[in-house]
Design a protein that fits this description.
It is built from 8 helices and 9 strands. It has helices at 20-29, 49-52, 60-68, 87-95, 106-115, 129-139, 144-158, 173-189; strands spanning 9-13, 35-36, 39-41, 55-57, 72-78, 81-86, 100-103, 120-125, 166-169. α1 (20-29) crosses α8 (173-189) and α6 (129-139) runs antiparallel to α7. It binds guanosine-5'-monophosphate (5GP).
């Protein structure tokens, strides 16, 4: 039977505000095709986010049903809200030969590694703590209290970066995207 080559499963992690979306947009600009997993979450949507389709927003009960049904590849609590990756769309895309990117936080990344040893874990590092704070503030969607919580979480997250297969510095988006692209290409060949 003529089966398509299996795609690479890439976990892309980094503190809130570090520039994951910017780097992924630059990766598309470079001509890389990938399936970006759509997460489910119980947090409130930011303005325009429902329409953007970046997340499926669920109630706590709906989310807990997905956990009970074992429908999530991973899930984690981040600042009091649930976030998770529905497993089926990921498997479908991989079996179609597409590269899959999961844009998730640290605890979820480590769960994926345990469940899928073939996954490749990439951590996007801020150039400096000061630059991360500047980027988080620039987004302008968070209250001061939420910014402080995200900054505290970022310190915990960056302390875990050594557990990842690759660390990429989020400095110039095009350069970070090119590095990520190389990692994806190398992972497919493995
Ligand atoms: P935000 O609220 O800023 O959209 O996301 C907060 C954090 O949750 C970010 O680090 C983001 O990457 C992460 N995240 C988004 N979706 C998922 C998911 O499905 N699973 C896990 N574990 N983390 C996620």
């Amino acid at each position: 039977m003529n089966r398509p080559e299996h795609g690479a499963l890439i976990v892309f992690t980094g503190p809130s505000g570090v520039g994951k979306d910017t780097v992924l947009a630059a990766l598309r600009e470079l001509g890389y095709d990938f399936f970006l997993s759509i997460s489910v979450t119980t947090r409130d949507p930011r303005p325009g986010e429902v329409e953007s389709g970046a997340y499926r927003f669920l109630t706590k009960a709906e989310f807990e049903k997905l956990i009970a049904d074992d429908a999530l590849l991973e899930h984690a609590e981040y600042l009091g809200q649930y976030y998770g990756t529905p497993e089926q769309p990921v498997d479908r895309a991989l079996s179609e030969g597409r590269n899959v990117i999961l844009k998730i936080e640290v605890q979820g990344a480590l769960q994926v590694r345990a469940r899928r040893p073939d996954a490749v874990l990439v951590f996007l590092m801020p150039p400096s703590p000061e630059e991360l704070e500047r980027r988080l503030r620039k987004r302008g969607t968070e209250t001061e209290e939420k910014i402080q919580k995200r900054l505290a979480a970022s310190v915990r997250e960056c302390a875990m970066a050594d557990a990842f297969d690759y660390r990429v510095v989020s400095d110039v988006p095009e350069l970070a995207a090119a590095r990520l692209g190389e990692i994806i290409t190398a992972s497919r060949r493995k």
